[in-house]
Write a structure and sequence with these properties.
Structural class: mainly alpha
Radius of gyration: 21 Å
Order of helices and strands: HHHHHHHHHHHHHHH
Largest sheet: none
Shape: globular
Length: about 375
């Protein structure tokens, strides 16, 4: 089971592929599979089990096959659009919406977690596949800012992936995207200057990223026409927003003094069972920030750092900011300030609370 459980993402993608093949209202089946998974994750006890993997290639197989499953998924999407158009000429909006949401959710889970895992591998083939997978969320260059900014500056104002207290999930999705693009621009520009290349060189990451995303949209249009292009473009944008919204809960409100070591209390763990599996342990990331080259199946759940409930529960409450702030964010951060923060971090936390208009629970 320690191997099979990580094939959950492959299983639900197979359901989505079958749904597109069957067509009609079945295009909603991909999105519908997430409803029971979310409910199980919210109402289950925390999964604190350590995985026992003695055959690493078997645990890595779903990672390295995933890009090809995505190709099959998109082929099934295009097949459905062409078939539906051939029968009805036009496609009902409800079907297009179902297809868009299904593809977007698959782009998030398991795709984003797999892409994240592959980009942290030392194997160049794995990293190449991770870069290709980034195409499906319109962010093939995310690895640059993630590795060279987030992992170094998490919890500080220099990390666009750490959301300041008082900010909502809606504003963060856009500020995090802008921050990642800005970091990429600065780093790629510096690399090109050292190499004596133009920023727009065919050898540069910008050109390759535009080629990847533009190529996917062009293929969508050539095979499935305007419907195919619109569904793919909409799903990419929606998936990108969903990913940043989920990212919001990984480090929300935590502060760290720049230059101090990253420690287990500088991140939130979400150790619910489904999110651990479908995101390939991205929510169990205590060890990941200690050593980003540890494979996902070797990450151990830690209770020494601060804990959050199911990331899906956080996401649903975050959609209603007053609910998120009152019942999860403020109580959790109050506990963090009082029981985890260092003396220097408490000063930063007091300033963050004041800026957010929150109570000064550290006044005493």
């Amino acid at each position: 089971m320690d191997y099979l459980r990580y094939y959950l993402g492959t299983f639900i993608m197979s359901i989505g592929i079958i749904g597109f093949y069957m067509g009609g209202p079945w295009v909603w089946v991909g999105a519908s599979t997430f409803i029971p998974l979310i409910l199980i994750d919210i109402f289950s006890k925390k999964d604190l089990r350590v995985r026992h993997i003695s055959t690493p290639w078997l645990a890595d197989l779903p990672l390295h096959l995933h890009f090809f499953f995505m190709v099959i998924l998109y082929a099934a999407l295009f097949y459905w659009i062409k078939t539906e158009q051939g029968i009805e000429q036009t496609i009902p909006f409800s079907y297009l919406l179902g297809a868009t949401i299904s593809i977007a959710l698959f782009n998030v889970a398991p795709t984003a977690g797999i892409g994240h895992e592959l980009l942290h591998r030392r194997n160049p083939i794995s990293r190449f596949l991770g870069m290709l997978i980034g195409t499906f969320v319109g962010d093939p260059t995310r690895d640059i800012a993630h590795a060279h900014t987030h992992h170094l500056h998490l919890g500080t104002v220099n990390d666009s992936d750490t959301c300041a207290r008082g900010k909502t999930i809606y504003t963060f999705a856009f500020t995090a995207t802008w921050g990642s693009l800005k970091d990429f621009y600065l780093m790629e520009k510096a690399r090109c200057a050292r190499a004596g290349e133009s920023f727009f060189s065919p050898n540069g990451r910008l050109f390759k990223a535009l080629l990847q995303v533009g190529g996917l949209l062009l293929i969508s249009f050539l095979i499935a026409g305007i419907y195919g292009c619109l569904v793919v473009l909409s799903s990419i944008i929606l998936a990108k927003l969903f990913i940043e919204m989920l990212n919001y809960f990984q480090h929300y409100g935590i502060v760290r003094l720049e230059g101090t070591p990253n420690q287990s209390h500088h991140l939130w763990n979400h150790l619910s069972p489904v999110s651990r599996l479908i995101a390939f342990e991205i929510t169990n990331h205590n060890d990941h920030h200690r050593d980003s080259y540890i494979p996902y199946y070797a990450l151990k759940p830690h209770l020494t750092g601060p804990q959050m409930p199911s990331i899906f529960l956080c996401f649903l409450s975050g959609l209603i900011p007053p609910l998120w702030f009152k019942y999860i964010a403020k109580p959790k951060l109050k506990d963090w300030d009082l029981n985890y923060a260092t003396a220097e971090e408490r000063e930063l936390a007091r300033a963050a609370n004041k800026k957010a208009g929150w109570p000064d629970w550290l006044a005493d």
